Amino acid sequence: MSRAARLLELLQALRRRRRPVTAAALAEELGVSARSIYRDVATLQAQGARIEGEAGIGYVLRPGFFLPPLSFTEDEVDALMLGLRLVARRGGRELEAAAAGALAKIEAVLPPEAAEEAAASGLMAGPAREAPHLAVLRRAIAAEQRLRLDYMDGKAARTDRVVWPVGIGFFETAEVLVAWCETRRDFRHFRLDRIAAAVPEGGRYPRRRRALLAAWRATQEMEGS
């Protein structure tokens, strides 16, 4: 393994942990000596990585540091490009701009020959219908904010719902909002193309989104068992 690749692996190993990890444990995971870990940590710190700790105690990577990718395999480049192209097609204007920016950054750090191959990739994303109210829903999810939906069900009946938005699923045939519904007092799935209006109701919902998401996932596991 080259030193550049090892630095990236070390950074990834630190990112996976929220608590300090010793140089010995990192050395065993990466197949190098503890002395190499000490040197590599010092190198990353010099590059701006917020790694705290010291020899004999352990190291932890604080949030907020992004290191440009040092290398990608051909398959990894294809996966990144296809994923971002799909987001640009289905994610609304804000995510379309973000995907375009991410694509430009990835192409900028690739070797010239790899950048040319990525630009000419045969993996393409076709056009998709616009997802209504996506920007409003994304902001509500990020802010853990209650929403009032004017919704039309599968029988074309209009209903008024106050929901706690948890996440959005992008499926082949539809985009779906996962939310806790105050009316049904349970999780419900709302197709975005059936939402006539989505308006912030005011105030944060009483449970944290992570807890709600975990509870929803548990219901999916029970239904699939």
TrEMBL record:
Note the coiled coil stretches, chain numbering: none
Q: Where does the Helix-turn-helix type domain start and stop, copy by copy? A: 6-59
Spell out where the chain crosses the membrane.
none
Please give the InterPro entries that the UniProt record associates with this protein. CBASS_pafABC_assoc_protein, HTH_11, WH-like_DNA-bd_sf, WH_DNA-bd_sf, WYL_dom
Task: Domain (WYL): give its ranges.
Answer: 133-198
Q: What is this protein called?
A: YafY family transcriptional regulator
Q: Which organism is it from?
A: Roseomonas populi
